[in-house]
Design goal:
By secondary structure, this protein is α+β, with helices and mostly antiparallel strands. The chain has helices at about 35-100, 115-120; strands spanning about 1-15, 20-30. It is rod-shaped and about 110 Å long.
Length: about 120
């Protein structure tokens, strides 16, 4: 009786896009015949590698989603600042136009007659 141990290295990409060993997948079994043990262990190794690759793919997708979220949050923050600035400018413009008798909230240009009479009387 012998012990058959199969070890397969697992690689991942580092920050420089180079492959580096992340660990090993090891499967072992007691066996009487090496070819039978190998045939029995090979499907287990393939299954473990598939799970590992799916986990790596999920981690990669998570990283991509996090970077997209960060980009969207940055754009949202910028748009929020721009909207706040535009609102303040609108408020200042509305006050300015009210001094001339123009109602900024109307759908059309409406000039108050009291301002027009004041201009004419000067």
């Amino acid at each position: 009786m012998a012990i058959l141990k199969i070890s397969v290295p697992v690689y991942k990409l580092n920050s420089w896009s180079k492959h580096e060993v992340d660990g090993f997948v090891e499967v072992s079994s007691d066996c009487d015949n090496l070819s039978d043990a190998y045939d029995r262990l090979l499907p287990q190794i393939n299954e473990l590698l598939e799970k590992l690759q799916s986990q790596a793919r999920i981690a990669s997708e998570l990283s991509d989603l996090e970077s997209q979220l960060s980009s969207i949050q940055s754009r949202l923050s910028t748009n929020k600042r721009l909207l706040h600035r535009a609102t303040k400018q609108y408020q200042r413009l509305k006050i300015f136009l009210q001094q001339f008798g123009v109602s900024a909230g109307d759908n059309f240009l409406c000039i108050d007659n009291t301002f027009a009479n004041f201009v004419v009387s000067i």
